[in-house]
Design a protein that fits this description.
By secondary structure, the chain is an alpha+beta fold. Helix content is about 45%, strand content about 30%. The mean pLDDT is about 80.
C-alpha cells in the first residue's frame, strides 16, 4: 500500500515539478514570474537570470511547456499536445481516483459482509 501512495503522488505531481511558461512575444521559456510595482519580473529557464519588463499590455504567458536544455527550446507538455489543459488533466486524474476508491470500498464492504455473515 505504501508503494501505491508514493506512486500516486509521483503521478499526481509530475506535471507540476517541471512546469515552465512560454512568453511567445520574446520566444523565451520562463521558470517563474511575478508582478510588482507595474513591472513584470521573470526568470529565464536557460540563464536563470532575473529580467523585468514594463510593457505589461503585450505580455501573453502560456503554461504547459517544458524547457529542453539540449535543444534550447521550449516544447509543449504532452498534456497540451493532446488538446487538454491542466484543469482537464487534473479532473480526469481525480475522476480515476474516485472510481478506484469506490471500487475498493465496494469490495472491502462486500468482504466484511461475507466474513461477518458466517457463523
Amino acid at each position: 500500500m505504501k508503494y501505491f501512495k508514493s506512486l500516486f503522488f509521483v503521478i499526481a505531481f509530475s506535471n507540476i515539478l517541471n512546469a515552465d511558461f512560454l512568453i511567445p512575444e520574446k520566444n523565451t521559456c520562463v521558470s517563474e514570474y511575478y508582478f510588482q510595482a507595474d513591472k513584470m519580473y521573470y526568470r529565464r529557464s536557460d540563464t536563470h537570470i532575473l529580467y523585468f519588463t514594463t510593457n505589461l499590455y503585450s505580455v501573453n504567458i502560456k503554461d504547459g511547456y517544458d524547457y529542453n536544455s539540449t535543444t534550447d527550446m521550449c516544447i509543449p507538455h504532452s498534456v497540451v499536445i493532446l488538446g487538454m489543459d491542466y484543469k482537464d488533466f487534473n479532473f480526469l486524474l481525480g475522476l480515476i481516483g474516485v472510481i478506484i476508491g469506490g471500487v475498493f470500498m465496494f469490495f472491502t464492504i462486500d468482504a466484511f459482509i461475507k466474513v461477518g455473515g458466517k457463523k
